[in-house]
Design brief:
Layout: H1 2-24, E1 40-41, E2 47-49, E3 57-59, E4 65-67, E5 73-81, E6 84-92, E7 98-105, H2 107-111, E8 121-127, H3 131-137, E9 152-155, E10 159-162, E11 187-194, E12 197-202, E13 205-214, E14 218-224, E15 229-238
Antiparallel strand pairs: 1-15, 2-5, 3-4, 4-15, 5-14, 6-11, 6-15, 7-8, 7-14, 8-9, 10-13, 11-12, 12-13
């Protein structure tokens, strides 16, 4: 009986150690890649020119979208969206690149864009990691009002209550983690926009967002903002 008890105790100890080891292993990130019912890939036929040049945007059949960055402008979706999920990958091709995705763009602000410029709405920031250093090296004030890891914020007449942490002026939702990759590397964004609330996942983890958004419907826009950038795997699924 004593030998049996010792053996049982040893077995339980081994099982406990194995469980502890499994618990210590890092949890893999779950990327939502737009696979499954309802997801639609967005391509050239789903966008229309606003104030870009004819060669600013190039859409490829394999889902790659190239942007020269010039002029500062946007291309907008043909239709407006209200509740939806969006996935895409992006990479900046030049250090300190700037771009973004408008998820709910105010239609009237797009109508006024007859020259270079950007519209108004709820923006999901797409910045290269080198942008912050370039901003400070350029002699401007300290770069404490933005990050390069997925800020979400209202532009112009749009309104939003940002999730914490926030920018010093309380207008931007700062990411809770710094997960973006650098120049030339692909980053993954998953955006969920439902009933006036927008949430952003960067490379598999939720980091920022806001609620009480106005507008809570509008066009989807991709930004050309002075630097070459590529998008791929841009897919959307509309929700009730």
């Amino acid at each position: 009986m004593k030998a049996t008890w010792i053996g049982l105790t040893s077995a339980l100890a081994v099982m406990a150690l194995a469980s502890f080891s499994l618990a210590e292993e890092p949890v893999s990130k779950a990327l939502i890649n737009g696979e499954g019912p309802g997801w639609v890939q967005l391509g050239q036929d789903d966008f229309t020119k606003v104030n870009s040049n004819d060669d600013t945007w190039t859409f490829h059949d394999d889902g790659l979208i190239e942007c020269t960055g010039n002029p500062v402008s946007v291309t907008r979706s043909v239709k407006q969206y209200t509740n939806f999920e969006l996935v895409c990958q992006w990479r900046h091709l030049k250090n300190a690149g700037n771009s973004g995705i408008f998820v709910w763009t105010i239609p009237s602000s797009l109508e006024k864009l007859t020259e270079p410029g950007l519209p108004q709405g709820i923006e999901v920031q797409v910045l290269d990691l080198g942008y912050k250093a370039a901003y400070e090296d350029g002699g401007k004030r300290k770069a404490d009002w933005f990050t390069c890891h997925g800020d979400v914020f209202p532009v112009g007449a749009a309104k939003m209550t940002p999730f914490p942490p926030t920018a010093p002026n309380k207008q931007r939702s700062f990411p809770s983690k710094e997960l973006s990759k650098g120049t030339g590397e692909w980053n993954h964004y998953y955006v969920r926009a439902i009933n006036g609330e927008v949430r952003l996942w960067v490379n598999g983890e939720e980091v920022s967002g806001g609620t009480g958004c106005s507008p809570a419907t509008g066009y989807l826009c991709l930004e050309s903002e002075g630097s070459p950038i590529e998008f791929r795997g841009l897919k959307i699924r509309e929700l009730p």
